């Protein structure tokens, strides 16, 4: 009887120590699902989802506070990938699909106020106080965050031109009708 | 020693076969007896800056500039790129976006050249003694000549002639299969210019240091085979082997031809060079010969204009940039029943929206199809899972699985089934009893995967930049806070600056310091020492005046 109790107590202690050690040794700092979700998001940092950026939105999705269809720049692809990852149902994107855009500064009108510089989440605007600003097109994510702060309305969003090299074949448009349809 | 009387083609060789493939009605008799004729010099040529795989060429001429035939007008931009030359003499009238022969129907930057009708050449630099040239010099010549793979893919040829320092090229295969129905441009080239093909093959072999050369030709071209054999016999080269292979679509696919000739398979998503083989088209070989031995850059190509939708099918030697309509006109125009205009063959070609588009370096065939002439017809039905497609697939894939995954936009699974090993030959779609546009699904999936990869790369960059910005903002905030704290600390260090006594003490101390300084300097500061007698007198006068004035003032006050 006593041996059994002692043995069990020893086992409990050993496993307790093992688990305690594992908890310290293999500590996970952040929720791995958040990083996985963040990896799917398009990183425009635009805030169109209602959160302060892609990572906060990923956190909200992980906590179940936000739906998976709130990311207009990501479109259908992101919704599908998130649905796949989280085992939720895919649904149409809030606000519908969106054309890919890039910001453009009318350099004649720009007064060099640096407000857009401060708004850009990816440092894609080049300029300094009282110097003309310009967008680094290849870095611009099209988040539109620079449009609002501009006091002279010199920033416009222009759609990205599709070149033959970046063009994608359309989804085959075939309507398969049932054989014996009346 | 007696020369062999028969051409060196008698060798019986073991051949292999690839999986699948189709025996198709070849329709080559429509045009294969038509000798190569020069196309009429067009008034205007439209030269897309991108006619090859890789980066578009950079224009090096200005609008209004006069150019000569063979003059370089676009230079390669980066390593994987090709040069562009003026196909005739004339004036550059525009450098702008023009519609190009691309499935998207989009526009692309083009140089528009108005010909002056004189067709005047630039000075050419032929290299007759190319055996003395280093392989890298040869590659440079070929690069400068703007030569790309003329079989259809348009990969810059000089890159494929560069095996790298550590790779030994075992076999150079010259692709003379021309397996797609209707097309006869390579057939005619070999019949009429066999010597050029062989000469090009020898140059390529030299550039690659290849151990042997094998020319693979389908057995439905006996005359071209004989012509090549005769050309080989003339130069007595027994080290170039001419091999007839059975006619089976798509033997002309690079990987398929390699399998047939050597029994070896190119690894999945790999290149022939991975198994020490390099494969070039016969027309490319002829272009290499012209570029090196005559100094002529790639200005023209042979185009088969055929199909029942055109009055008289022909083989034309066409200047790059010639509008397709001009070629159709030269072939008697299209018939009223024309259903579809195709660039390339009936299986792999692309449907053109109209004939106003220019011929590019890769445009081997213009196919004017009459209604019901070739391939799939009838309504699209559901897949019945018959498996015919898998039996026909020359790449040994499972087209049906690829179809389901592409249709469901499940690209990961499509890639698991080796979507990117699909050569888009169209065999599966040809045999499909449900008339499914299978290749379109694969093309859709491939381009969509590329687009997603581009987006992913961009997202990665954005994340990096965003993280950097956040970090920078935090660092700046921390730096500001540290600076503030330092200032505060400095203020606090000075003895109780806010107490009244301390202030007084400080003032007192300052006054004492000043006093001590004055005393150290001696008597009160004076500038009245060492004065001249005159200055002394002036001072005394002034003092006396002041004294009297003072006296007067006080007298006035009293009054």
Give a quick summary of the entry.
Chain A is mostly helical. Helix content of chain A is 33%, strand content 8%.
SSE arrangement of chain A, N to C: HHHHEHEEE
Any low-confidence stretches of chain A, pLDDT <50, length ≥5? 178-182
Number of strands of chain A: 4
Please name the two chains that share the biggest interface, counting residues whose Cβ lies under 8 Å from a Cβ on the partner chain: A-B, 32 and 36 residues
- CATH topology group of the domain at 99-162 in chain A: Alpha-Beta Plaits
The strand order across the widest sheet of chain A is 1-4
Low confidence ranges of chain B: 1-10
State Rg of chain B: 41 Å
Describe this protein's structure.
The complex is a heterodimer of chains A (about 180) and B (about 550). Chain A is mainly alpha-helical. Among the domains of chain A are: about 55 residues, Electron transport complex subunit B, putative Fe-S cluster (3-methyladenine DNA Glycosylase II, Chain A, domain 3); about 60 residues, Alpha-Beta Plaits (2-Layer Sandwich), CATH 3.30.70.20. Chain A contains five helices and four strands. In chain A, the strands form two sheets. A two-stranded antiparallel sheet of chain A has the order 1-4. Chain A has a two-stranded antiparallel sheet with strand order 2-3. In chain A, a hairpin with a 7-residue loop joins strand 2 and strand 3. The radius of gyration of chain A is 26 Å and the shape is elongated. Chain B is α/β, with parallel strands linked by helices and about 550 residues long. Chain B folds into two domains: about 325 residues, NADH-ubiquinone oxidoreductase 51kDa subunit (Rossmann fold); about 110 residues, no CATH class. Chain B is about 35% helix and about 15% strand. In chain B, the strands form four sheets. Chain B has a six-stranded mixed beta sheet. A four-stranded antiparallel beta sheet of chain B has the order 2-8-7-4, with no helix packed on it. The longest helix of chain B has about 55 residues. Chain B starts with about 35 loop residues before the first strand and ends with a helix. The interface between A and B is medium-sized, with 32 and 36 residues.
């Amino acid at each position: 009887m006593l041996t059994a109790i002692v043995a069990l107590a020893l086992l409990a202690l050993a496993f307790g120590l093992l688990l305690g050690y594992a908890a310290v040794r293999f500590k996970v700092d952040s929720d791995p699902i958040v990083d996985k979700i963040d990896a799917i998001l398009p990183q425009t940092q635009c805030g169109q989802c209602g959160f302060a950026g892609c990572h906060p939105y990923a956190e909200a999705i992980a906590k179940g506070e936000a739906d998976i269809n709130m990311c207009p720049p990501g479109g259908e692809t992101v919704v599908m990938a998130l649905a796949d990852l989280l085992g939720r149902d895919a649904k149409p994107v809030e606000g519908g699909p969106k054309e890919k855009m890039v910001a453009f500064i009318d350099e004649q009108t720009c007064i060099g106020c640096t407000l857009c510089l401060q708004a850009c989440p990816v440092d894609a605007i080049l300029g300094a106080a009282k110097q003309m600003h310009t967008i680094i097109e290849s870095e611009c994510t099209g988040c539109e965050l620079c449009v609002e702060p501009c006091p002279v309305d010199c920033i416009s969003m222009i759609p990205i031109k599709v070149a033959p090299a970046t063009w994608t074949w359309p989804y085959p448009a075939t309507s398969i009708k049932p054989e014996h349809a009346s | 020693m007696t020369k062999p009387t028969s051409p060196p083609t008698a060798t019986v060789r073991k051949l292999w076969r690839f999986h699948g493939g189709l025996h198709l009605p070849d329709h080559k008799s429509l045009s294969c007896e038509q000798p190569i004729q020069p196309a009429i010099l067009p008034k205007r040529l439209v030269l897309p800056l991108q006619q090859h795989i890789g980066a578009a060429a950079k224009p090096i001429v200005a609008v209004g500039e006069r150019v000569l035939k063979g003059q370089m007008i676009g230079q390669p931009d980066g390593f994987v790129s090709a040069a562009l030359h003026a196909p005739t003499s004339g004036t550059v009238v525009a450098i702008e976006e023009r519609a190009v022969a691309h499935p998207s129907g989009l526009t692309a930057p083009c140089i528009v050249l108005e010909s002056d009708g004189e067709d005047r050449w630039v000075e050419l630099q032929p290299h007759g003694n190319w055996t003395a040239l280093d392989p890298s010099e040869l590659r440079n010549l070929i690069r400068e000549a703007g030569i790309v793979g003329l079989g259809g893919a348009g990969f810059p040829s000089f890159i494929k002639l560069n095996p790298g320092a550590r790779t030994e090229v075992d076999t150079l295969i010259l692709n003379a299969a021309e397996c797609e129905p209707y097309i006869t441009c390579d057939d005619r080239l070999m019949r009429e210019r066999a010597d050029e093909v062989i000469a090009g093959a020898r140059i390529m072999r030299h550039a690659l240091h290849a151990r042997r050369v094998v020319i693979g030709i389908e057995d439905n071209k006996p005359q071209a085979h004989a012509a090549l054999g005769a050309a080989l016999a003339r130069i007595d080269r027994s080290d170039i082997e001419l091999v007839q292979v059975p006619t089976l679509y798509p033997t002309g696919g690079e990987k398929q031809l390699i399998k047939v000739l050597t029994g070896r398979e190119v690894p999945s998503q790999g290149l022939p060079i991975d198994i020490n083989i390099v494969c070039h088209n016969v027309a490319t070989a002829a272009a290499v010969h012209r570029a090196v031995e005559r100094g002529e850059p790639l200005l023209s190509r042979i185009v088969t204009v055929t199909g029942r939708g055109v009055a008289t099918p022909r083989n034309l030697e066409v200047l790059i940039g010639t509008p397709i309509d001009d070629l159709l006109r030269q072939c008697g125009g299209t018939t009223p029943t024309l259903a579809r205009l195709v660039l390339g063959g009936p299986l792999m070609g692309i449907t053109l929206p109209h004939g106003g588009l220019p011929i590019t370096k890769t445009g081997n065939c213009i196919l004017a199809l009459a209604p019901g002439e070739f391939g799939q017809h009838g309504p699209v039905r559901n897949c019945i899972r018959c498996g015919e497609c898998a039996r026909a697939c020359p790449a040994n894939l499972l087209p049906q699985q690829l179809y389901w995954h592409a249709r469901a936009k499940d690209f990961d699974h499509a890639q698991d089934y080796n979507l990117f090993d699909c050569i888009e030959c169209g065999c599966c779609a040809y045999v499909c009893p449900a008339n499914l546009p299978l290749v379109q699904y694969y093309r859709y999936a491939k381009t969509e995967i590329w687009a997603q990869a581009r987006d992913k790369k961009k997202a990665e960059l954005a994340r990096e930049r965003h993280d950097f910005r956040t970090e920078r903002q935090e660092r700046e905030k921390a730096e500001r806070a540290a600076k503030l704290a330092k200032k505060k600390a400095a203020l606090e260090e000075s003895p109780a600056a806010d107490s009244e006594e301390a202030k007084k003490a400080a003032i007192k101390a300052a006054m004492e310091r000043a006093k001590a300084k004055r005393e150290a300097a001696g008597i009160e500061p004076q500038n009245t020492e060492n004065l001249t007698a005159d200055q002394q007198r002036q001072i005394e006068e002034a003092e006396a005046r002041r004294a009297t004035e003072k006296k007067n003032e006080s007298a006035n006050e009293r009054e």
